[in-house]
Specification:
Elements lengths: L1 H26 L3 E3 L3 E9 L8 E2 L17 E10 L10 E9 L6 E11 L2 E9 L5 E9 L7 E8 L1
Antiparallel strand pairs: 1-2, 2-4, 3-6, 4-7, 5-6, 5-8, 6-7, 8-9
């Protein structure tokens, strides 16, 4: 009877571990779509950024400046394309929200993603403090002046 109990516990532990692992793998994505947009996500540790990226709005430094970022901050960037013709979206207002997914609570940070040029192409980005290990929900809300409503895509990333 004891060996059957041990075997049952071992099988339950394996199923639980496999289920959690596959959940993280299934949730981790760098590309998401809404009704009108294809959105690609990029995350880079701020400590790896050495050269000041070029902002479209030249009267300020990139998202407050590289030197002001904590060691755990990440530069969150998105490229936005129209779903129907794959055209890059150049003049949207993009808002990012990062939420650390914890069992009880968690931090939530909401900021505009500023329009910038990366490798000659327009992207949207900003720095977010992502110092804690774990799973983060990254929501990206896209507003365009010729549309009545915004559209949102959500990424799940493990830090």
């Amino acid at each position: 009877m004891k060996s059957l109990f041990k075997l049952t516990n071992l099988i339950l532990a394996f199923i639980t571990l496999f289920g959690v692992t596959s959940l993280y793998a299934a949730d981790s994505s760098w590309h998401e779509e809404s009704e009108s947009y294809k959105v690609y996500l990029g995350l880079v540790s701020s400590s790896l950024i050495k050269k000041q990226p070029y902002l479209i709005d030249r009267d300020k430094t990139l998202h407050g400046g590289i030197s002001k970022q904590s060691s755990g901050s990440k530069h969150v960037m998105v490229s936005v394309f129209r779903k129907d013709n794959n055209e890059r979206v150049l003049n949207a207002t993009v808002i990012g929200e990062i939420k650390h997914k914890k069992l009880l609570g968690g931090n939530k940070i909401r900021k505009p993603l500023e329009k910038m040029v990366t490798s000659g192409a327009i992207t949207y980005g900003n720095y977010f403090n992502m110092t804690e290990k774990g799973v983060y929900k990254i929501s990206v809300e896209i507003f365009e002046s010729d549309k009545n409503d915004s559209e949102e895509v959500v990424f799940i990333q493990k830090n």
